[in-house]
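G., the chain you wanted modeled:
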Amino acid sequence: MKGFVFHGPGQASWQDVPDPAVKEPTDAIVKVGVVTICGTDLHILKGDVPEVRPGTVLGHEAVGEIVEIGGDVRTVRPGDRVLISCITSCGRCRSCRDGSYGQCRGGGGWILGHLIDGTQAEYVRVPCADLSVHPLPGALRSEDAVLFADIFPTSYEVGVLNGHVRPGDTVAIVGAGPVGLAAIATARLFSPERIISVDLAPARLEAAHRLGADAVADAHEAPGQLVDDLTNGLGADVVIEAVGVPESFELCTRMVRPGGHVANIGVHGRPATLHLEDLWARNVTITTGLVDTHSTPMLLRMAAAGRLPTGQLVTHTFPPENMEEAYDVFSKAAETGALKVVLGGERYEVAVPAA
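Predicted structure as tokens:
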């Protein structure tokens, strides 16, 4: 089969790789129908995630069809259309029992495309399948469902819930990429007074406005002043960092009000300065986190009911064999206007050998 293989910083290719096989009785083999690229994949290619070894198939988001299961799998069977979660959960360890699946101590957590071969391939082995794939309702298109493998639960859990967004809040979201835009959509579920989106790319700010941001600001044009103007100098109740660079994190800490929350989502490859000399007396809460995906079933139900704007996030589609082109388009989002890039789906029926 084919897969997109990481060879080291700046090097990856769509190439022949061995077919996956069931290794544990809790495994499932999934024929990938729709897959997407995450900003974290770009961080891996930059060398920001050194745990990823050369030779690893990338990707941790996909929708596909179960083709084989181990003897202990009970919740899915061959032929089922499923969402592959970005997080694998053993369901038995202390973290999983607490619902902190991202911190799984039983061989799970974020492993696909990180510690083991991932989803950017024709087939993928999914460990702990009973808790790590989600059967999909027929009403939800695969191209829409794939957005719930990562960006929607990440924005909702690590951004909106960790930030304690409440009715009447002012919410500032720094970064209008896919996760930042999903944060706008999920923050709106809590009826904030206003949402302010900050980014460098005009196309992304336009997308933020379409998805419900009440105000947008160019990151180079004093967004903190806009926040002050809209809050009478108080600052935002919640600031969500959805970029992953030191400058954006430090901007967030400057825009939050005393007693407010900074919720960091972005994947950081470089140190950021925490200005405790300014923050220590302001009662500011700063949270970080890897998504747990405990909200995925609920978000899928809301998507099937038409309560979340999925179609507006997908800007480019490709056949799977154009993976390298898709990465190039996604990595140059400022030039291409790319938000979420999807490979496969109804438009591209892929004929692959049976597992």
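The first helix runs from residue 39 to 46.

Shout if anything looks off.
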